[in-house]
Design brief:
The chain has helices at 38-43, 97-110, 123-135, 149-157, 169-179, 192-198, 200-208, 225-239, 259-266, 292-302, 311-323, 330-346, 364-377, and strands spanning 3-5, 12-14, 29-31, 73-78, 81-87, 115-119, 138-144, 161-165, 184-185, 216-220, 248-254, 305-309, 352-356. The chain has 378 residues and is α/β, with parallel strands linked by helices. It folds into three domains: 1-31, no CATH class; 73-93 and 196-377, Rossmann fold; 96-193, Rossmann fold (3-Layer(aba) Sandwich). The strands form three sheets. The protein has a six-stranded mixed beta sheet, with helices on both faces. Strand 4 (73-78) and strand 5 form a beta hairpin. Helix 2 (97-110) runs parallel beside helix 3 (123-135), helix 3 (123-135) runs parallel beside helix 4 (149-157) and helix 7 packs across helix 8 (225-239). The protein is globular, with a radius of gyration of 19 Å. It binds pyridoxal-5'-phosphate (PLP) and zinc ion.
């Protein structure tokens, strides 16, 4: 049976509805022993739930699923290099956040919880709302006022109660935490069950590469839910003796909001307080990443690094991917801009996997604005 474990003071707690952080204030991890019965796994349908024995949900009846996951892994050329892109905007809500939401809401249902609250820059809110709707669970979502209108529409369409907060993303989180006094905190950054959904990214990449791992993963990082999920997933595969090592983890941040980059550059163990500027990459505009320390540790452990990209580089990557037939969110374009930077720096033969995390329809108004800007410059 799984238990909460505090990586800071090493206390353990049973999994209970009211417990979302440690007495010492730290976020909690999950102690859980996954299994990988491959014969059984490969006979199941191609969804992330084929890895059932590696997901900490006890009873099949509680699974809240829309048959999500097992997204395509496509090979693509960048300059003179071929890399693999996992098309993770092909989820029911249009972003990879469904990986976390399907597992977290299954746990919520298993625990018999009736109401949840979450704060988000948009996509996590959409995912938690959608899976709450599926599960018949009441849901409140706190978002910063500058969230793309498309995501607001999506959250409301799923029937969640939307709370728009006038302050920053950080202020939004504080408001949601106040509400979490009364309501279960289904937080994608605090709740480890979310990470035990996003970790399926690693399992799928491994399977899709013919049960092999890449050398490097290039992933966006704000709160690091995909980044840490991938790390946990590969670590579990290694601990189960399925693979020998964990790929290098390279994180991409926007220059306008790069606390992890600054920590990485200065060799700090904790992200410093930063002055955040506006960025079109709203999905990674996180000034105070809850699991910052854990992200930095994962980078050190895997020999990875953090790269930053400018607004202009993000805009260019967005246009370039559009011309290849991929309509993506600016946040995903930031990943591609970072991927390009990484490939230029390395330029050697490495098997690299990156991802497209969110679809363009999530931010079509902002994208339209970018396109018009571009035209007036030409
Ligand atoms: C949430 C999100 C990210 C980054 O996720 P973090 O957990 O904050 O690191 C990247 N891309 C998209 C489209 C997202 O919605
Ligand atoms: Zn603790």
């Amino acid at each position: 049976m799984e238990r909460f474990f505090c990586p800071n003071c090493h206390q353990r707690f049973p999994v209970e509805p009211t417990r979302w952080r440690c007495e010492c204030g730290s976020y909690l991890d999950l102690e859980f022993k996954p299994r990988f019965p491959l014969r059984r796994i490969t006979r199941r349908e191609p969804t992330l739930w084929r890895y059932l024995e590696a997901i900490p949900i006890r009873k099949g009846d509680f699974i809240v699923s829309m048959k999500e996951g097992f997204t395509p892994l496509v090979e693509m050329e960048f300059g003179d290099q071929r890399i693999f892109l996992k098309i993770d905007f092909l989820f029911p809500t249009g972003s990879y956040k469904d990986r976390g939401a399907t597992v977290l809401l299954s746990k919520v249902k298993e625990l018999g919880i009736r109401r949840v609250v979450e704060d988000s820059s948009g996509n996590a809110g959409s995912a938690i709302s959608a899976y709450s709707a599926q599960a018949g669970i009441q849901c409140e979502i706190y978002v910063p006022h500058n969230t793309s209108s498309e995501k607001l529409a999506q959250i409301e369409a799923y029937g969640a109660v939307l709370k728009r907060i006038e302050g920053s993303r950080e202020e939004t989180a504080r408001k949601a935490i106040e509400a979490a006094d009364q309501i279960y905190y289904a937080s994608h950054c605090w709740n480890p069950f979310f990470l035990h959904g996003t970790k399926t990214f690693a399992f799928e990449v491994w399977e899709q590469l013919g049960w092999k791992i890449p050398d490097t993963l290039v992933l966006p990082v704000g709160h690091g839910t995909l980044f840490l999920g991938a790390f946990i997933g590969f670590k579990e595969l290694r601990e189960a003796g399925m693979i020998k090592r964990i790929p290098r983890l390279v994180g991409i941040q926007s220059m306008a909001c790069a606390p992890l980059y600054q920590a990485w550059e200065k060799g700090l163990e904790e992200p410093p307080l930063i002055q955040k500027k506006e960025t079109i990459a709203e999905g990674i505009a996180i000034a105070e990443p809850v699991r910052g320390r854990q992200i930095l540790k994962a980078i050190r452990e895997t020999g990875g690094e953090i790269l930053t990209v400018s607004e202009e580089e993000i805009r260019r990557s967005l246009m370039e991917m559009g011309k290849r037939g991929y309509f993506i969110e600016p946040t995903s374009a930031a990943t591609i801009a970072g991927l390009r930077k990484y490939l230029r720096k390395k330029g050697k033969k490495e098997k690299v996997v990156s991802t497209l995390t969110g679809m363009g329809l999530k931010a079509s108004e902002k994208i339209l604005h970018l396109i018009h800007q571009t035209k007036s410059h030409e």
